[in-house]
Amino acid sequence: MPEYVKYVDVTKCDGCRACMVACKNWNDLPAEETNFLGSVQSHPKVTADTWNVLQYIEHENSKGDLDYLFRHSSCFHCKDAACEKVCPENAISYTEFGTVVIDQEKCVGCGYCVQNCPFDVISLKTYIDKNGKEYKKSHKCTMCTDRIEEGLQPACVTTCHTGAMEFGNKDEMIKKAEKRVTEIKERYPNAMVYNPQGVGGTHTVYVLAEKPSVYGLPENPKVPTSAVLWKDYAQPIGKMMIGATTMAVVGAFVTNKLFNKEGKEHDEDGGGGNE
User: Fold this and answer.
1) Which domain holds residue 250?
2) Which residues are noted in the entry as [4Fe-4S] cluster 3-binding (predicted)?
């Protein structure tokens, strides 16, 4: 089964927000009350009920001119996803298409995925059960995996009237992105393909007009070392070689010391300091 990629060319986006409406409609996501931001942008960031957001950025370019930049913001669907590695319930997994999805039946709302996502695109939603007790679940963009399974494209892609988004074979989309960058370099000297390899590459690949930081994106996002050690080494070895009680103690240590914000910052800075 070939991997698929959502290709996003920010230089073609006109900020219409049709992608946001399509996502809300297809996924039956409720409307949210938000504060007026004073611009085209309706939400500060993605949330548990708004899985993609149209970002609006005013930027002074290298020539001293003012550029109005847009970016369709949603889950990147990393090939090596930190959220999948830190989930203690194996509620997050990869599909055959390369998308990263959350099994709501398994999710316990611990929030480790929220804390460790380098792009800050996962959110917790609070629910109330029939007994009045609160519980939480993690939510994010699924890249419309249910549509892909039926041979359809993601809802956001189908509604984009400027051709800023396409969906197709991974290699073809990456080649398209690279070609587009060469075409716009004269106008946008800092143009680049954003497909960070620190997370194994992503299944949402961008053509950016400026450096990632201009869009609020990390320049070189990586999976935290603590997450790699836990998922790829400690957890499987623990299951094979030590008892359940000892594994629980090890798990508690890791979650308390490594999967919190302080542990994440310590790991990224190499021992003291700080998308």
Assistant:
1) 224-274
2) 75, 78, 83, 117
